Amino acid sequence: MGRISLLALGSVICCQLGFAQEVERKRSSLIEEVVVTAQKREQSAEDVGIAISAFSDDTLQALGITDTADLTNLVAGFSYTDSGFSIPVYTLRGVGFNEISQTATSAVGVYIDEVNIPFPVMTKGANLDLERVEVLKGPQGTLYGRNTTGGAVNYISKKPGEEFEAGFSAGYQKYAQSDLEAYVSGPLSDSLGARFAVRDIRSSEGWQYDYTRLGAELGEVDKQSARFLLVWNASDEVSVQWSVDGWRDRSEPQSPQYFQFKNFSALPAAEASENVQNHPTAPEGDARATAYNPERELGLDQDYIATSVRTDWQFSESTTFTSILALQRFDGNDSYNNDGLNVSDLDYDTATDTTAWNAEFRFSGFAFDDSVQWVAGYFYSGDELEDTRYTYPTESSGGYGGIFVRQVDLYSKQDAESHALFGQAEWQASEQFKYTLGLRYTEDSRDYDACTRDADGTTASLFQAVGVLQRAGLGDVFSLLTSEQVSQVGQVVAGLLPITALSEPIGQALVAAADAGLLDLTGDLSGGPGVGDCVTLNSETNESGLVRGGLEEDNISGRIAVDWTPSDAMLFYASYSIGYKAGSYPSLLSATDEQYTPVTQERIEAFELGMKAQWYDGLLKVNSSLFRYNYEDKQLFTVFKDPIFGAIQRLDNVPESIVQGLELEIQAAPFDGLYTSVGLSLLDTEVKNYVGIDINGNEQDFSGNELDYASPMEVTAVVNYEWPVFKDYSASIGFDGKYSDAAQGDLSNDPITVRPSYFILNARVGFSPYDGPWNIQAYVRNLTDEVYFNSTQFQPDVFVRYTGRPRVYGMRLDYEF
Q1: How many CA atoms are closer than 13 Å to the CA of 379, on its beta-carbon side?
Q2: pLDDT tens digits, residue range 665-715?
Q3: Beta 758-769 vs 238-249: how paired, if at all?
Q4: How many CA atoms, within 13 angstroms, populate the side-chain half-sphere of residue 14?
Q5: Could you give the CA distance from residue 473 to residue 236 in angstroms, rounded to a whole number?
Q6: How far is CA 743 from CA 106, 516, 799, in A?
Q7: What are phi and psi of 608, to 5 degrees?
Q8: N or C: which end of the chain has fewer CB within 10 A?
Q9: How confident is the model at residue 495 (pLDDT cuts 50, 70, 90)?
Q10: 652 and 599 in contact (C-beta within 8 Å)?
Q11: What is the 3 state secondary structure string of 316-373?
Q12: Phi, psi of 498 (to 5 degrees)
C-alpha cells in the first residue's frame, strides 16, 4: 500500500483545557460541547458530519496563540512554513501551495465571521477578541467563499451582549515582550450594541543574534490590532452587523540560518564573491543564531484594514436572506534578509499594494415540515494586486560576485475576479439518516502584467548581451564569456563601445550577425532595454519587454454525504466531495517569459468515512476519520532549466498525486478536575505522475515521491488538572505538546531539504478564585528548548532554514470587570 505516514492528529484538542479554561472558571469534569457554524448555521460539533477542530478564546490565550501560524501547533495535519517574506504558507492534510509571493492565495481558506481573507499575509492579526476558531478539514468547495482544496479556518468574533462587559489581559515574557489586550462591550440602546477590542504586542529585545558580530540582535516585535463591531437589531426580523478591523506590524522579520553553500549560476564565469563562499555557517543546535547585513535596516512596515456589513432578514418563518459585503486593503513596504549572511547574496525590499472586495448573497431556510434545511446563493470576489520587489544580488553568482549586477527589480500586477453560484440541501429522512447534497459553479479570471526591471543600467546591459547573442544564434557562446566580456557586449550593442573593444572571436561573431541582419551595431537598440526598463526576454523573439497574460477558468464542485446516527451519542458519516483552487501567476524575478507561465486550477476528489462518539455522559469523546484524495494538477513552486541561466524559479502543475490518511481524536475527563486529549494521524502522500526539474537543474521523474510539507507523523496531547485550594480558589497545572515527524521540504525529496522531526512541550500553572474576575498564569513554551525548523529553502548560492522559537517563559493576568 505504499508509504504510510502518521498525520498530525492535533484535532483532538477540540475545546482544549475544557473546564479549566471556562469563562466562569468553574470546576467540572465534563468536556464542554462546542457549537460551530461549519455549515453556516449553529450546530454542535458532534452533530456535524465533517472533520472539525474547534477552540475557544480562553484556550487560544492559555496556549499563547497570537495568529493563524500559531494555530498549527494545536491541529494535527495543519502545518506552517515561513516563505521568507513574512508570509505564512499553510498546509492541511498534506494539501498546500508553497508559493513565496504576497499575492499567492492559499489552499487553506481563512475567514473572519464568514468574510473571506484572500491572502495569507492578511491573516496575521485574526486572533483578536474571539469566541472560537473552527478548522474544517478537506475540500471546501460548496459553502465557503472561494474554492479551497485543503480546508478552511473560520474565526468567530465575540459580539456585544445585552449587558455591559469590559476586561483586559496583560502578559510579559522573555525578550522583554509585553502583550496587552482589552475590550469593552455593551448596549448603546435597546436595539443597538457595540464592542471594541484592541491588542498590543511588542518587545525591546530581539530573539535572534548575529553570530558573526558581537552584540547584534534581531527579532523585535511591534504589532497592534483592533476591531470595532456594531450590531443593530432593527426589528425582530432584521439585524445588521458592521465591523471594522485592522492591524499594523512594524516588527523585525526573521532571518534564516545559512547551513550550506552551492553556486547558483550555470555560467562558468559567474561565481559568488569570496565573502559568500567563505562565510561561516550557523552554529548547530542554536535556534537564535543567524547573520544579516549590517548595512541594511531590516523591518516590516505593513498595514491592513478591513470593513464588512452583514444583514440578516428573516422575511418568513422558514426563510432568511443574508448579505455580506466586505472591503480589505493591505500595504507593505518591507526589508528582508533571505540568505542568512552578513553580506548581500540576495536581499530584498518589497512594496505591495493589495485591495480585495467580496460579496455574498444567500437565502436559507427549512422546507417539507422542517425535514429539509437548505441554502442557496451567489458569491463574488475581486482583487487588485501590485507587487514590486527590489533585489540586491550584490555578491551572488547571479550578480557576478559583485562585479556586475548590484540591483535588479521585479514588477508584477494582477487583477482577478471570481463569480460563483452555490446551493446545499440536507434532508433528515428519518431519525437516524440524513442526506446532504451541495453544488457550486465557479468562474475565475485573472489579468497579469510582470517583468524583471533594470535598476541601474547593469541588468539592461546584461540582457542586451543575452538577447543579442540569442538572436544571432550565439547563445552557447554566452555561457563561455567572463563577466567583463558580458558587460562589453552589452555596451557595444548600446553604442557605448566600439566593436574593436571586444576580443577577436566575439567581435567577429557579432559583425557576422550584424551583416546577416540579426542585430544592429549602430547604437540603435530598436526598443532594447535601458535604465529602468523591463528586461525579461520573450522566449520566441529574444526581445526584452513587459510580459502580459490572462487566465480564464471555470469548474463545478460539490459534496454528497450520508449521516447515520444510531444513537444520540454516536454519528457515522460518509462523504464524497470535489474541490478546486483557482490558477494563478507567480511574482518572481524572470529571465524569460516562460517563468511567468501560470499554474492552472488544481482539483481534489475526496472520499471520507468518519465517526463521532461519546460515552459516560460525555466524559469520553472519540472522533475518527479515514480519507483518500485523488489530487490532480497540484500547484507547485519549482524550478525549470533555462538554457542560459540554468535552474530558475517558476510555477508548475503536478498532473496526478494521491493523499490518504487516518485520523483519530480522543478527549477524556477520567475524574473530577482532570482533562486529557490526544491525537494521532496517519498520512500517505505520493506523486503518481510528474517529470520536472530538481533543485540542481536536472530533469527528474518525481513519481513515487512524497508531497512537500506533508509530515509523516504528528501527535498532539493536552493534559490539564485543576484542584481546590484555600476553599474559594483553584489551582491548575497543564502540559501540551506536539510531535511532528520529518517532512520533505521539496517535491524532489532531496535530503538537504528535509525538515527534521521535532517535539515541542509547553507547560503552565494557574491560580484563580472560583467565581472571581481574575486569573493568573505562569507558562513556559518550548520547555525543553528544542531546536527545530519549519522550512528549508534554496536561495542563490546558499541553503537556509527557518528555525522555530527557542524556550520562552512568562506570566499572564486576565481580569474581567
Answers
A1: 23
A2: 999 999 888 999 888 889 999 999 999 888 877 889 999 999 999 999 999
A3: unpaired
A4: 24
A5: 77
A6: 20, 55, 17
A7: -145, 135
A8: N
A9: low
A10: yes
A11: CCCEEEEEEEEEEEEEEEEEEECCCCCCCCCEEEEEEEEEEEEEEEEEEEEECCCCEE
A12: -75, 160
Cα gap 793→517, rounded to integer Å = 44
Cell 458530519 locates to 49
DSSP secondary-structure letter at 588? -
pLDDT at 523: 45
Orientation of helix 504-515 relative to helix 458-471, angle to 10°: 60
Strands 570-581 and 547-567: antiparallel
Which residues touch 651 (CB under 8 Å, ≥6 apart)?
A: 99, 584, 585, 586, 597, 598, 599, 635, 636, 637, 638
E-state strands within 174-301:
177-187, 192-203, 208-210, 217-218, 222-233, 238-249, 257-261, 289-290
As a whole number, the mean pLDDT across the chain is 85
Share of the chain above pLDDT 70, in %: 83
Cell of 432: 437516524
Please check whether residue 534 is in contact with residue 544, taking contact to mean a CB–CB distance below 8 angstroms.
Answer: yes
Does the pLDDT of residue 20 top 90, yes or no?
no
Percent pLDDT > 90 in the chain is 56
Helix axes 504-515, 483-493, angle to 10 degrees: 30
For β-strands 289-290 and 257-261, DSSP reports them as unpaired
Q: Which of 177-186, 231-240, 485-494 has the lowest mean pLDDT?
A: 485-494
Closest CA to 84 of 280, 284, 298: 298
156 neighbors 113 (Cβ within 8 angstroms): yes
**Is residue 474 within 8 Å of residue 509, measured between CB atoms?**
yes
pTM of the full structure: 0.87
Cα separation, 272 vs 688, in Å, equals: 37
How many other CB atoms are found less than 10 A from the CB of residue 239?
Answer: 16
Asked which of 51-65, 306-320, 439-453 is least confident by mean pLDDT, the reply is 51-65
| Beta strands, E only, 601-645 | 602-615, 620-642
Count how many Cα atoms sit within 13 Å of the Cα of residue 496 in the half-sphere of its side chain: 12
What is the gyration radius of the CA atoms in the chain, in angstroms? 28
* Residue 23 pLDDT: 32
Q: What number of helices (H) and strands (E) belong to the chain?
A: 7, 40
CB 721 within 8 Å of CB 733? yes
Query: How far is 686 from 113, CA to CA, in rounded Å?
Result: 35
> What are the residues facing 361 on neighbouring strands?
323, 378
**Are the beta carbons of 420 and 379 closer than 8 angstroms?**
yes
Burial class (CB in 10 A: 0-12, 13-18, 19+), 224: middle
State the Cα–Cα distance between residues 594 and 541, nearest whole angstrom: 12
